[in-house]
# Entry
Amino acid sequence: MAEYNLPDSVRYSREDEWTRVEGDHVVIGITDYAQQQLGDIVFVELPEPGTQVAAGDPFGVIESVKTVSDLFAPITGEIVTINTDLAETPEAVNDDCYGDGWMLTIQPASSDELQGLLSAQDYAQHIKDREE
Amino acid sequence: MSDAELRRTPLNARHRALGARMVAFGGWDMPVQYSGILDEHRIVREAAGLFDVSHMGQVWLRGPEAVAASEWLVTCPVASLKPGRVRYGMLCNERGGVVDDVTVYRIAEDVIMICVNAANIEKDYRWIVRHAGDATVTNESDATGQLALQGPEAAAILARHCDPDPTDFKRFRLFEAKVAGVPSLISRTGYTGSDGFEIYLPAGETETVFDTLLEAGAQPAGLGARDTLRLEAALPLYGHELDEDTTPLEAGLERFVKLEAGGFLGAETLQAQAAAGVERRLVGFVLDDRGVARAEHVLTAKGREIGRVTSGAPSPTLGKSIGLGYVPADFASPGTQIEVQIRTRSVAAHVVDIPFVTKAGGPSGG
# Structure
């Protein structure tokens, strides 16, 4: 199995997004596993700030050279900001998925859903189960 | 089709050992990428990439009728093709639709090899047998390995292990050689828009030659880069730009059709279509804004549907998104403004001359 960078400082969804609480907001991106699976990322389509999203719903699209994949909201809430730099530099998602490759921030509707997200250890197991 | 039913080339285990990501393509389990599609694309444009194309098929015609049969089967001239030369052409049905696009090798006076697409091997073999008269037809695809060494450094890398020296063979020439001691048939051809060679060899020896060429400096390249490379060169992909309901004239491939001479399957239909003019044409387009055109996206002009995208990708060489698609002839002129409907967005694009990237490298001729 390939090696993936899965920091303990974030929590993970089963759809391969990470979340990090910063003040009142939650920062969201895709995991190292996801970016490795996708390969060279060439386009990211994100919703407008102010958009309401529900956990599990598609909120955007990420494209690699050969593939088009939906992005799924890990929690319910309102989009506050999006990473507009990704329009010019989508490859940041490959290069630094937990940093410059972040996608958006959400004002969560409640804090309950965050509790249901996976730890790094559980997410690593989730990947392993899926690959087997 | 489940993975268990996918066919494997002689290099399947090598691809996995090299860390390739494998995908199903035309019924085969094939490497889509090793280091990454963009990296492999750049390597082929700047150095040399090595592709396993053993999934492709080879049908041989032998005997006194081989040339006449081939002349009837393919759109390009065969009798005028000298031994040692290769031509691109198409197998057409009676309606002028493309059964497959192929390369025709005049191996010897009475020996022709036709290289066919992987997904069409059985269909083509049956088609050729049906229309080949008294020529002896054999499908030698399973016994044949095929490698494509492509890029400006391909000749120098191959020369290190090839007897005779391949450097001075021109484009679309073929020759028998030994590569790493393995008896091979080599042509200066490819599907990337860069200089390079295709090597046909006994299936069981494929790994030896593959490993030798990697050690000599070639980098492994997968189907992902093969697709972006051929798209920049505007080379058609069967099942996308070509099918049995599309004619070579619509696809802009009339220079590979002996329209005046005729005497081939589909000739009358194609001659009539040429006289009347085609109603739709394959065009290349470049996106004016961000986004990626993909096969099946709708093409519009001022909002009205005019056609569909057949292939699209970001062009690593141009740094823009490019695509191919069929539109009415009125919209086929370079500069024509169109739009690509990408999910909820209408993205501006304009028709351009193809190929998107012009061929570079290698002695000209053929």
Observations:
- Residues 121-131 of chain B form the longest helix (11 residues).
